[in-house]
Every structure is written in structure tokens, then in C-alpha cells.
Specification:
3 domains, 5-stranded parallel sheet, alpha/beta, Rossmann fold, 26 helices, about 625 residues, single chain, 7-stranded antiparallel sheet
């Protein structure tokens, strides 16, 4: 039985799991650690979740196999339930005590001299004996405690270092154990208070700087910067060198986590399979592109993403919703937006039909349309900002530095969604949004209300009359409602096969017809977005026979709308016949029995009356069924 979630435990064995393909880095680092001059400190640099702990576990496994003694200290654990001034001494003490524990029976040092005990007492009672700018320990108080029962002399830092070096030398020189050197692993420095992290780093530099010793630290440079702000102030271009100099004095060999070279393709597909989700071959690249443009290649972020996806997919199936792979894919895409770009997800909950985001939508949400146009004009033409909705998205990103830097990734992601779902974009998006909103965290009142509404979108209205009442209560244009009502009244009368159905959704009404060539599954043939309050309508009709386009063109010709058939049949995609009327002659999604579709938008009302549009729709329906 497939697991329903992924754990966040670090990888601890190369032969167990290396879906990210990091073994080449482990082998190289191991060789470097074994053969380098000592003392030396290696910093595994990377933000939260990039795999630093996993890499250290794998290094430890390889080094133990090469007769290297190791000690592991999780600094975050030692900071729990301790005052800040107690954390550093506790970590320093653990380095040696954990080394002894790790060596087990190979710890051959006799403790008659009580050096280890004395050092342990010293650190235990050291407290916060740190002078502001450097580790010069006034150890008198600590010495009195540490030497109780011995002699009450002042212990200088040099004496402590000498004792620790003697312990290391004795361990390595003893022929009764196989050790050639010692490697100390210091993990989770980026999880403790930044000022404490800096204190630990200073301590390691000033005390644990020994021959035959290598330190491997898991660190995030940004944490070091925060910890040094009390000393250097906020980092600027003028003082950046001071921050970097501190880091360089501590870390002799920086190693940035190679997330850009991780084999995310294998990792993602493997994890989806672990969750019991089989991704169709033609959808794998779409899933990968969604990850690339949203959460990126951070393994921990990706695991959290997949766990949320698995939870919502489980709820969706338990809810009795269909298991359509398209809805599943859309849910995955929406979660990527929700996790990485919550502001954009917020606007999707307000109006999910993002292709209709225009100047009025921008103005409603405090965007200056003229300013957006002027700024985009300065950047020159770009395929990702040539449509109104794309300009709106770009505008939303400009007030947030993170979104500003990711604006084109967001636009690429939304275009990927648009191109992947095309004719049934709105319906699939609304179906998936009903579940994606379950995990949305937003204190915006408008968003909260829309999430409640989205949550009910999967509940179908009980027939034409109930849906009509909803439209009227929302003050939709009455003439446009009449168009909608006449179309679906006729369609109700034409339902003759068991699979024929009308879905009266929260924001859309759609008609499905059973086609033998689709293995008994009903296919959506008419998609009618709820009429607007200003008489706007949007209807998409899909054809499933050879005569569909021929008959449709004749109907439009009867209403003095001329269609250039040569242009239509030579085109690679949609042809705009007149404003508000799009015709597509291509088969969609490898369904060879589909023969094009038409999209009647609100701008067509400027050319034809609602009465004429009603007649056109009914004539098309009569030729189809």
C-alpha cells in the first residue's frame, strides 16, 4: 500500500535513497576531508531545506567506513529550554562528549587524569563568560566550579585548548583504535537564534582549532548576517566586506548546496509514485515545469508541497469528486501558486477567470493601468506581457520585491496552465480551486468570503430554476440571463443518452454529451460562464463531428459575419473573426474525433444583439444534436 505522505527525515544512506543524485559530491567531499591539511572548517552553505543535514549524514557514513572518528552536534536541540547564555557552552561540551559516545568501544582513552571530566565541568559552569567582541574567557568562576576537589587555580583558555588537543592526540595515536583523524559535524546552526549562531562560530574558531580535526558546519550565510547586525549594523554595500570577512575567517572552505544540479525530475516522479500517484507520460513535463516555476528545487519545500497535494487529493476523492487527471494536475498547479505566490493565489480566489483580468480588475485592486503600460513600454515587447491579463499579473508583482523578481516565472506558470487546459480552463480551475482553498491562509476579508464561496462551488444547483435564482440574486444582467436560460432549456430537451448531463456550477454551467469514441465517458461540449452584470457573456462550444465548422461558418454568414475559411484552415490556432468571436479548427489533446471549437465572448455584443446571439447559439446546437 502506498504511503499517503512523505516524511521529512534526512537521507542517511547512499544505498538507500539518492534520488537527487548527490553521490558524486559526497565522494568528492569525503576525499577532500580525508586528505586535507588540518585544522580546517568546511561550511555547507544553503537556505532552509536544501539538504545540508542529509549531506552531512551521508558524509558521516562514508567517513566512518574510512576509519575517521566523528562527533555530531545538533545545535538546535542544545538550544531548547536553555537560556541564550547557556547554549554555547552546552554545544561546546557536547562536541567532546558526543565524540566519546560515537567512538563506543574504540574510545581507548583512560580517564585517570580526568581531563574530559574537568573540561565538561568547565563548560557546564561557564555560563555567559563571553566578552562582547571576542572569546576571551574570564574563567575564574568556571575554574572554581570545574576544579572543586582539585586545585582552585585560574584556568586560562590556552589550558583548556591544551587539554582538548591532548585528548584528540591520544585518541588518534593509540594503536588500539583505527582512527586517523576526527571530524566534528555541527548541524542546524541556521535554526538557532542568529546571535547565538555567531557566538558558536566564534567559539569554534577560538577553542576547537586543533590538528587532525575537521569541522563540517551546516550554515546559512543569511543567518550569520543577521547575527552580526548588532556588531556591524544592517548590511550595506559599504560594510558588506566586514560581514564577508567574518564568515571567511570561520569557514576556510565554503560549499554551496548544489540544488541547481539536483535530479529533481527523478525526485519528483519518485515521490509522486510513493504517494500512489501515477503521472501520465504526457503530463510529466508539465508537473516538472510547475515545480520549476513555483517552489523550485528545495527538497524540503517540495516535500511539504507534495504532502499538501496528497492531503487535498485524498479529501477530493473522499468527497466523491471525479478522479480526472486534469483536475489533479490543476490542483497541483494551484498549490504551487498558493505556496510560492500567495498574493497571486489571493486574486485567483477573488476572480478565478484570470484570462479576464483587465483594466477594470486592475483599477479595482489599486493598480495604475497607465503606469503599468508606461513601464512595460520601457522594457520593450515581450510575449509574456502582451495580453491585458498578463499586464495585470505583472502589475500585482511590482509592489513586492520577491514577486517582482519572480514576475516572469509567475507569468510562465499561468501561461502553462492556460495552454495545458485551454477549452475547459475555467471549469477545471474552479473544481481544483474548491480544494486548494482548504489550505489557504489569508486574513484578507474579501478573500475569506471568496474562499467560502469557492468551497461551495463543487455543490451543483438542483436544476435550471435554482441556478437562475442564483443569477438573479447576484443581479446579473437580465437579458444575458435570458440567453443563458434559452440555451440550457433547449439542451435539457435534447438530453437523450444516459451520459448526457448539465452541470449547474457556482460560476459556470456546462453541458456534457456521451460519445462512443470516448470509451463511454461524457465529454464537455458547451461551457457557459455566468453572465455578468453588464450583459457580458462567454460561451465555448466544442465540435465532435466533421461538419461542425462547416455548419458553424454558414450560420455566422447568415448573420453577416464573414469567416475567411482559408485563413481558418491554414491557421495554427485560434482565429479572431470579429471582436468577441474566436474559432479554432484544430483537434485538441490528441482527441482525433474533436473538430474545432468556437468561443463567443462579451465583445461580440458590440457587433450583434443578444437576441441574434441567442439565435446563433440555438442554430449551432440544433446542427450538433
Amino acid at each position: 500500500m502506498a504511503a499517503i505522505s512523505l516524511n521529512d527525515k534526512p537521507i542517511n544512506a547512499l544505498n538507500r535513497e539518492d534520488t537527487l543524485n548527490v553521490s558524486r559530491y559526497i565522494n568528492a567531499l569525503t576525499k577532500f576531508i580525508v586528505e586535507s591539511d588540518t585544522p580546517i572548517t568546511i561550511g555547507l552553505q544553503g537556505e532552509w531545506g536544501t539538504g545540508k543535514t542529509s549531506m552531512m549524514y551521508l558524509l558521516q557514513e562514508e567517513l566512518r567506513a574510512r576509519n575517521i572518528a566523528t562527533s555530531w552536534v545538533n545545535t538546535w536541540q542544545y538550544s531548547l529550554f536553555r537560556d541564550a547564555k547557556e547554549t554555547t557552552p552546552a554545544i561546546l561540551n557536547a562536541l567532546l562528549s558526543n565524540l566519546k559516545e560515537s567512538c563506543g568501544t574504540n574510545w581507548t582513552i583512560k580517564e585517570k587524569g580526568d581531563k574530559l571530566v574537568k573540561i565538561g565541568r568547565f563548560f557546564s559552569h561557564l555560563g555567559n563568560q563571553f566578552v562582547k567582541d571576542k572569546l576571551g574567557i574570564d574563567a575564574e568562576a568556571a575554574a572554581n566550579e570545574a576544579n572543586s576537589g582539585f586545585t582552585h587555580t585560574r584556568i586560562e583558555i590556552a589550558e583548556i585548548k591544551k587539554d582538548i588537543q591532548e585528548i584528540i592526540d591520544t585518541l588518534i595515536s593509540d594503536s588500539r583504535n583505527p582512527y586517523q583523524r576526527v571530524v566534528f559535524f555541527v548541524d542546524d546552526l541556521d535554526r538557532i537564534n542568529p546571535s547565538e549562531a555567531v557566538q558558536v562560530l566564534e567559539s569554534l574558531k577560538n577553542i576547537f582549532d586543533f590538528e587532525n580535526c575537521v569541522f563540517v558546519l551546516a550554515i546559512d550565510y543569511d543567518v550569520v548576517v543577521k547575527g552580526l547586525e548588532s556588531k556591524f549594523g544592517k548590511k550595506t554595500e559599504e560594510n558588506e566586506r566586514e560581514f564577508r570577512s567574518f564568515f571567511d575567517k570561520i569557514i576556510q572552505v565554503p560549499f554551496s548546496m548544489p540544488i541547481g544540479t539536483y535530479d529533481i525530475d527523478s525526485f519528483l516522479i519518485s515521490k509522486l509514485q510513493n504517494l500512489g500517484l501515477e503521472v501520465a507520460t504526457n503530463q510529466k513535463q508539465i508537473y516538472l515545469q510547475i515545480v520549476k516555476q513555483s517552489v523550485g528545487y528545495n527538497p524540503r519545500s517540495l516535500k511539504r508541497y507534495l504532502n499538501t497535494f496528497s492531503l487535498l487529493n485524498t479529501i477530493r476523492k473522499a468527497d466523491g469528486s471525479d478522479t480526472d487527471s486534469e483536475v489533479e494536475l490543476m490542483l497541483f498547479a494551484l498549490l504551487g501558486i498558493q505556496i510560492s505566490f500567495p498574493k497571486i493565489f489571493r486574486y485567483l480566489t477573488i476572480n478565478s477567470s484570470f484570462l479576464q483580468w483587465d483594466k477594470s480588475f486592475a483599477t479595482k485592486h489599486s493598480l495604475d493601468w497607465v503606469e503599468i503600460a508606461n513601464k512595460l513600454e520601457q522594457f520593450g515587447e515581450n510575449d509574456l506581457t502582451d495580453e491585458d491579463w498578463e499586464k495585470v499579473v505583472w502589475g500585482f508583482c511590482q509592489s513586492d520585491l520577491y514577486l517582482k523578481n519572480r514576475a516572469f516565472s509567475i507569468l510562465e506558470l499561468l501561461n502553462l496552465i492556460k495552454n495545458s487546459f485551454q477549452e475547459n480552463l475555467d471549469e477545471v480551475l474552479n473544481s481544483a480551486l474548491a480544494f486548494a482553498s482548504i489550505t489557504s491562509i489569508d486574513d484578507n476579508q474579501e478573500v475569506k468570503q471568496n474562499i467560502i464561496q469557492i468551497g461551495t462551488s463543487r455543490i451543483r444547483f438542483n436544476g435550471l430554476d435554482a441556478k437562475k435564482e442564483q443569477l438573479l440574486s447576484e443581479r446579473r444582467n437580465k437579458e444575458a440571463i435570458k440567453v443563458w436560460e434559452e440555451v440550457f432549456t433547449v439542451l435539457e430537451q435534447k438530453m437523450e443518452k444516459p451520459g448526457d448531463k448539465i452541470n449547474f456550477g457556482k460560476s459556470v454551467t456546462s453541458f456534457y454529451r456521451l460519445y462512443d469514441k470516448n470509451e463511454g465517458k461524457p465529454i464537455q461540449t458547451i461551457y457557459f460562464t455566468d453572465p455578468s452584470s453588464t450583459a457580458g457573456i462567454s460561451v465555448v462550444i466544442y465540435g465532435f463531428n466533421e461538419e461542425f465548422l462547416v455548419n458553424t461558418i454558414k450560420i455566422f454568414n447568415n448573420f453577416n459575419i464573414s469567416v475567411n475559411e482559408a485563413e481558418l484552415y491554414d491557421s495554427e490556432g485560434l482565429v479572431e473573426v470579429v471582436p468577441g468571436l474566436m474559432i479554432h479548427n484544430k483537434n485538441q489533446k490528441d482527441k482525433t474525433y474533436k473538430h474545432g471549437y468556437i468561443n463567443i465572448g462579451k465583445k461580440l455584443i458590440e457587433t450583434l444583439s443578444l437576441t441574434d446571439i441567442t439565435k446563433i447559439l440555438l442554430e449551432i446546437i440544433n446542427t450538433m444534436y
